[in-house]
C-alpha cells in the first residue's frame, strides 16, 4: 500500500493527457540540448519516468526526445544520476523501434552496463542478447582481474547467461569460470582504503582494518558476502557479485549444458550411489576450471552456513544471513545434482541446519529450499522427506499466512516442485486447507499461482471438502482477520483493517459455543468430514465490507472454474452425483459478501450443466433431490441462473433416450412440480421483498413443460391448455405494463416480470405452438 502522498502523485501521473505529455517532452528536449544539465533536468526526467511508468499502457514519446535521451546516456562526461534516469526511461519505453544505441563505441564500464540493460530490455531483436554478451566478454578479456570494469559488467553477463544460454563459446566459458574461482576464493581480507583523508590524518590512521564477521570477530577464513567492513575493495565487490550469479552460471556451465537439471532422473541418482559412498575431497589434485569452480562454490556455501551460526550485531546482517542461507542451499542442490559426490559431503551440515531452523519462526523462508533439497535427494541420502514435508505444510501456513513474501514463495515452491512430490502428493493434497489460508489472505497476487496449482490439489477423495472450502473462502478470510485481532502479541503494525470495528465478531470468535465451527474453518489439513458453516456466515456478516474479504470473494469464481475443470477429469459416477447435490445444497448457503452470490451462481449453473452433460443419467438418479430443490420458490429470483440450468437439464435429460430407468411417473411428478412453479412465478406481484422474476426462468419452464409433455401422452391436453393461458396472459395489458394499471380498470392476472419486460421476449416459438390447432400432437410421445 502506498502513502496518501504517493497515491496522489500516481493519480496525477495517470491523468496526464497526450497533449500535456507532448508539451512536457518538448521542454525536456530543450533542457537536454543545453550544456548545463542541472537540477531542473534531473527533476524533469524524474517526473517523466513517473508519468510513463504509472500506467499499464504504453506511453508515446516524441522521437526527438528519445534520441536526446540516448545521446545524453552516451555522453562521457554526463553525471551518473542523469545516465541512470535516461536508462530507466528508455527501458520503460522498450521495446521501441526508435532506439539506436551505439554499443561498440561505449568505453566507460558503467555506461556499458547501462546501455546493455536498455538493449536487453528490447528483447532478442536481431540477436541483441548475443551481441551484448560478446561485447561484455571482450571487455572482460581486455582488462586485468582487478580492473574497475568487472563490477559493472558482471550483472549484465549474468542476465545474458539466463536469457541466451548458448551465447558463450567453450573457451569463453572456461575463462569466466577461472575468474569466478579467483573472485570467490581469493578476495582480500583487508578493508578498502578511504576515498580521501583530511590534512591532519596520519598515515597510520588511514591504514585499512581487517574484515570482520557479522558478530564483530576478526575474519580468519576467506571473504564472503557475509563478511563485514566499513569499506570494500574492488575484488571484494566482485566476490559479492560473483556469488549472486553463481547458481545461474553453474546451471549454464554444468556437465550436460543448460537446462539439463530440469528433469528428475531417479535411476541416475541410484546409479551414482557408488560415487557418493566413495567420494573423497579433490582439493589435493589439479582440477579442470569447471570442476574447480564447483569445488570452490561448495566451500563458499559451507562457509556461509558456518557464518549463519554467528549472532549478528545488526538486524540488517541478520536478514542477510537468512537470504544467503537460501541461496547457499539452492547452490548446494545444483552441485549435488551435477556431481553426486557433493551429496555425501553436504548432508551432515544441512541436516543440522534444518534441525536448528525448523523451530525458528524468523527463518521459515530457509526451510523451503531445504525441503526441496531433501525431496530431490532424500531417497539416496536416507532422509525422511515425508516428515520434512509434514512439518512444512502443517505449521508454516497456519502461523505465517499473513506474510505476503512467504506466501508467494511457498505457493511457488509447491507449484515448481510438483514433480518432486511424486511419493508425497497425498501430503500436499491433504494440506489444502492450510494452503488456502495463504490464498484467503493474499488472494489478488496469488490467484494466478493457484490457477496453476489447483489442478494438482484436486483429488477424488477430497473434492467435496475442497469445494466447500472454496465456497467458504471469503468466510475464511474474515476468520483469519479475527484470529490476528485476537492474537495475544499483536505486531507493531496491525495486519488487519483498523478502520473496521467488529466487536460482535470478536466476541463470537471467543465464544466457546462457536469454537468448534471456527476450529473446523481454520483446520490445518483435510478432516474427511464436512461441517455446514451457515451460522458463521451470519456471525461474520459485519466483516463482509472488509476490503480483503471483498478481494477474496472476487477470486472465487475463477478458482471454481479451475476446480471443476480438474475434478471432472477424475470424478466417477458417484462423485459426479455428490458434486451436483453439493451445488444445489450450497446455493442457499453462501457468505453474504456484496455481489458474491451472483457471481458464484453463474459458475454453479454452468458447472451443473457440465456435470449433467458428463453424466446424463444424473437427472433420473437425483430425481427426488431435484424435486425438493424445485419445491420452494424462496430465493428463486436471486438464484435465477441456477434454477434455469436445473430446469433446462430436466427437460433435456429426463428421457429414456439417456436413461432407460426413466418412467412415466417420474415425468408426471416433474411436470406437476414445474407447473406449480410456473404458476407461482407468473401470479406473484413484484414488491420490495419479492423482486421480479427474470423472463428467462418463465421461458425455460415452458420449454421444459413442453418437452415433458411430448414424452407422455396424458400430459398433452394439459400442456396445450397451459400454453393457451400463458398466451392470453402474455398478451394482456397488465403483463406489458409491468403492473401499472389505468384508473377504473379492473386488475387482471399479473406476471412477476420487471417493468419494460414482457413474457414474449425469447419465446416466439410458444406463440406459434399455442396458435396451432393441436401443437403437442405434432410430436410423437416417447412413452405410452
TrEMBL record:
Annotated stretches, region: Disordered: 731-753
GO cellular component annotations of the record: AP-5 adaptor complex
Pfam family, one: TPR_AP5Z1
UniProt protein name: Adaptor related protein complex 5 subunit zeta 1
Boundaries of every AP-5 complex subunit zeta-1 N-terminal TPR domain copy: 1-279
Domain AP-5 complex subunit zeta-1 ARM repeats per the UniProt entry, residue ranges: 320-437
Domain annotation AP-5 complex subunit zeta-1 C-terminal TPR: ranges: 449-737
UniProt organism field: Cebus imitator
